[in-house]
Design goal:
Radius of gyration: 13 Å
Strand order of the largest sheet: 1-2
Largest sheet: 2 strands, parallel
Number of helices: 4
Structural class: mainly alpha
Distance between the termini: 36 Å
Shape: globular
Helix content: 40-55%
Number of domains: 1
Order of helices and strands: HEHEHH
Strand content: 5-15%
């Protein structure tokens, strides 16, 4: 896959994840998440896709990036306990 074909936001995301050492990256499932998951796999990182219906119960109030990230993290923790 040609690196120049990535969208600018994706290039920034991949540059950030390249410099971070984490065990697992949780993402809410969508078309972009599948593409990003494949790109993360190329960097030898593990991404966990979580369906939106599992994330929705953890959203506390109006949508924002911070609250969405918090809900995804909570849903990921709950899925590990199952």
């Amino acid at each position: 896959m040609c690196r120049n074909s990535y969208a600018p936001w994706l290039r920034l995301s991949l540059r950030f994840t390249f410099n971070v050492h984490v065990e697992l990256i949780g993402m809410e499932t969508c078309g972009g998440a599948h593409f990003l998951g494949r790109a993360l796999r190329e960097q030898r990182l593990e991404g966990q896709l979580i369906p939106a219906q599992y994330v929705k119960p953890y959203v506390k109030t109006n949508k924002s990036d911070y609250l969405d990230a918090e809900a995804i993290a909570e849903a990921r923790r709950a899925s590990q306990n199952r």
